[in-house]
């Protein structure tokens, strides 16, 4: 898969370590910044990653900041995005299985790199289950039109 990746200044080193891990899993990564620990306006990075996924340039997106919350909030403002913040593998799997999440946000200040690797692997390897969940995802996407 082609994976869009972005982070803010709080997650610069975290992002680099996780991009290397994702590449090692055989995925192509596209880096949308930040490229250092200099102060970054994370909504701008989140929008770039979100649009790359929604427009089909990338298959999924990964966002990193201090807690994951800011990136998730910004990304979910882009029509077509279903971004989840996860801190356990069960939630990462369910975000894909039941919600067809297309972006995952993680917090560099609240997760260790090894747990983040497990979350990423779970998120990237779990398919959308479809079935009764497809109706609910469609209902979520309809909310954007109201």
Walk me through what this model shows.
This protein is α/β, with parallel strands linked by helices. The chain has one domain (2-143): Sugar-phosphate isomerase, RpiB/LacA/LacB (Ribose 5-phosphate Isomerase B, Chain: A), CATH 3.40.1400. 46% of the residues lie in helices and 16% in strands. The chain contains six helices and five strands, in the order E-H-E-H-E-H-E-H-E-H-H. The chain has helices at 12-24, 42-54, 69-75, 89-97, 113-125, 132-143, and strands at 2-7, 28-31, 60-65, 83-85, 103-107. A five-stranded parallel beta sheet has the order 2-1-3-5-4, sandwiched between helices. Helix 4 (89-97) links the parallel strand 4 (83-85) and strand 5 (103-107). Helix 1 crosses helix 5, helix 2 (42-54) crosses helix 3 and helix 4 (89-97) runs parallel beside helix 5. The mean pLDDT is 97.
Keywords, please?
6 helices; globular; Ribose 5-phosphate Isomerase B, Chain: A; alpha/beta; single chain; 146 residues; 16% strand; 5-stranded parallel β-sheet
In which order are the strands of the major sheet placed?
2-1-3-5-4
Which class of secondary structure composition applies to the elements?
Answer: alpha/beta
Domains, number: 1
* CATH architecture identity: 3-Layer(aba) Sandwich
Write the layout of secondary structure elements.
Layout: E1 2-7, H1 12-24, E2 28-31, H2 42-54, E3 60-65, H3 69-75, E4 83-85, H4 89-97, E5 103-107, H5 113-125, H6 132-143
Parallel strand pairs: 1-2, 1-3, 3-5, 4-5
Helix pairs in contact: 1-5, 2-3, 4-5
């Amino acid at each position: 898969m082609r994976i869009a990746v972005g982070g803010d200044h709080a997650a610069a080193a975290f992002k680099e370590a996780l991009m290397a891990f994702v590449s090692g899993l055989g995925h192509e990564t596209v880096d949308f910044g930040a490229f250092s620990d200099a102060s970054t306006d994370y909504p701008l990075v989140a929008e770039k990653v979100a649009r790359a996924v929604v427009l089909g340039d990338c298959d999924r997106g990964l966002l990193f900041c201090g807690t994951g919350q800011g990136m998730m909030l910004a990304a979910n403002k882009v029509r077509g995005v279903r971004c989840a913040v996860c801190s356990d593998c069960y939630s990462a799997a369910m975000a894909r299985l039941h919600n067809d999440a297309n972006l995952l946000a993680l917090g560099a200040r609240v997760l260790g790199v090894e747990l983040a690797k497990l979350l990423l692997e779970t998120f990237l390897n779990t398919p959308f289950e479809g079935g009764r969940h497809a109706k609910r995802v469609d209902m979520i996407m309809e909310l954007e039109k109201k």
